[in-house]
Amino acid sequence: MDAFLEFATGPLFRLTFAIMILGLVRILVLDLIGMFEAYRRAGDKTIPWKLTLSRTLEWVFPVKRVISHRPVYSVIAILFHIGLLVTPIFLFAHVQLWRDGLGFGWWTLSPGLADTLTLATIALGVLLFLGRVGSRDARSLSRKQDYLWPLVLIVPFITGYVCANLGVSPALYRLSMLVHVLSGELIFVLIPFTKIAHCVLMPLSQLVSTLAWKFPARVDEDVCTTLNKEGAPV
Amino acid sequence: MKTTPVNDEQRAKAFAPTKKPDVVQRQKLAVRYHVEDFNVDDRPRRFLEAFAAILRHSNYQFALDHFIRMSAKCSRCATQCQVYLATGDTDDIPCKRSELLLSVYRRHFTLAGSLRGRLLGTGHLTDEKIQEMAESFWNCTACRRCSMECPAGIDHALITHLGRYILSEIGIAPRALVVSTREQLEGKTGNTSAVPVPALLDTLEFLEEDMKEELHVDIKFPVDIKNAEYVFFPAVSDFLMEAETLMGIAAVFTATGDSWTTGTGYFDGINYGLFYSDRILERVVTKIDVETRRLNGKKVLIGECGHASRSAKYFLPAHCGGKDALPVINIMEYTYGAWKAGKLKLRPNAITDRVTYHDPCNISRQKWILEQPRELLKAICADYVEMTPNREDNICCGGGGGTVSIDEIRPYRTAVGGLAKANQIRATGARYIVAPCANCKKQLRELVEDQGIDAEVVGLHDLLYKAIIFDPAMIVEPETEEDAVEEVKPDATGSADK
After folding, report:
1. pLDDT value at position A66?
2. Cα–Cα distance measured from residue A226 to residue A228, given in angstroms and rounded to the nearest whole number
3. Which chain B residues are closer than 8 Å to A52 by Cβ?
4. Chain A residues inside the 8 Å CB shell of B74
5. Which ipTM value was assigned to this complex?
6. Chain A contact probe: residue of B45, B48, B57 with most A CBs at under 10 A
7. What digits encode the pLDDT tens for the residues B211-220?
8. Distance from A196 to chain B by nearest Cα, in Å?
């Protein structure tokens, strides 16, 4: 168990973390290349930057949108995102690991706040899952991953809380830590290949849509030629 | 926005098929709107070929890649779609509609999807999926409210737009739009309402006489004037159905003294390409460009029409010269500018009845024109009220995306697509609904009629016409009583009074 835990926290962590980073960089670069190509081909290159930027900020910091529609769901979703990001990044134990590995660390959460955020994130994840199951609209749209993600995401939080706060037996501690690490690594690997890719792509969405409406010139002629429709009547 | 969904009886009426069974049989496609006879063989293959050709020559692919990587399916868009709120049918949720096309893209145009599909032998495009898309994409009014409400920023309107484009390439497009466009691009009259030039000139002359009689001002509709500042393109249907709007616009220009003209070479702002084919969109905006340059006009002036304004403003630069393209201005922008500059004087409280303003989606969704018409209305109306929600969040009239042109689906438009709008209008208690868009006007008139709302649908310039203060020097002497008597003399029976 110890050797496996060592492997999981060592080489496997580095591998999965690298997959996540490289995967995200890959899709980000592909997105940017696509956007650049679209801009290059666009007949009209004027971009409404102010509107695009304001709509982007509205969703990156969705305060304005919270109460307009489905306020309860929105508040839960926003708080869940805050918990997901803030807790692992600023947890003292995690920062300590980075400090050991990189030689530097950063500001950390107080133990009390970290615990509160952890428990809140778990509860919010469950609520999000139940919200999806309970909503006819959401059910009609959901794929397997949409149900699984809130549940998968709270596994490291549950196991992390167990390790940090509960006086469990050493064996259970190690098992819990192993699940904590492996579930975190599973998440790393899945992020670039699932909808969680929105963590890097979402800020680009408004610009992507704006650019996509910027059509290239000569669509008529080119599409007709490809489809052998030159001169065909309307 | 709260809307009680339609009941089963209303639903059956709204979705009643209008095609004869033998047509459905022949076309193997039971969509409600009338589709012309088309090739039914091997449709999935031809759909994919058209999809591939469009992806190759357009800018859609990178957006589809982006969307499939991050679609969260949260269903927030469901709170915004007036069609879904009226039908309660989850197939009408924008995100689900988008998935119809995204799933085809994922399966046939991405490596992972292709491998998965081949391994499992599933997910490939079938006739049934095409049928689903043909129904679904035309249930949408393309109002773009859902796109604004997607936290992931997925542009459902863009996806619907692309879906319709692909379908139209294999012959599945509403007959009403195709026939009109055929006349516009290949017919003798060259416009969607098939108005011949002599009829246009007669109409303008008739309107000039009417205005002289009503306002005692010599108001002209300039035709084929070279070097005018503005070349005017209203929705051509305005010449048949919106005389008051046109008179208001002519009156504004007479008051301001600016040069403008209608061109007899081409005088139609309508661009149905925006609703079903980018190829058509391009060809139509090119006609506007050619006519404006023929007359050596400085600017393209679009009348009270949402989609015509958007098509010209956003796609004329795309297809006709980029940054060197002719500037495009909507008539409301012009009138507002003239009023602000003091060239146009308006009488306060000229309209005493309660007035409300409907934001056409194509004009307001991108925050293009929001305040100008409101300020003008507040200047002339004693009792102006807002609809809720409004401006960029406003609800579509229910006839957007070209659906208003499809008379066969009027029950759908007024019972389903326009249900939320009808509730919104009722809540204002307004006597006049100002809808500065040819499509919105037609739809809203049918909507208030079918929904039993006691209100009149007008254009912004219809009301401005009643409020313009002309320079006293422009007032011409009214005809003398003797002249008037002369005019009615031929009918000595007194029927002229009837």
Report:
1. 79
2. 6
3. none
4. 77, 138
5. 0.95
6. B57
7. 999 999 999 9
8. 7
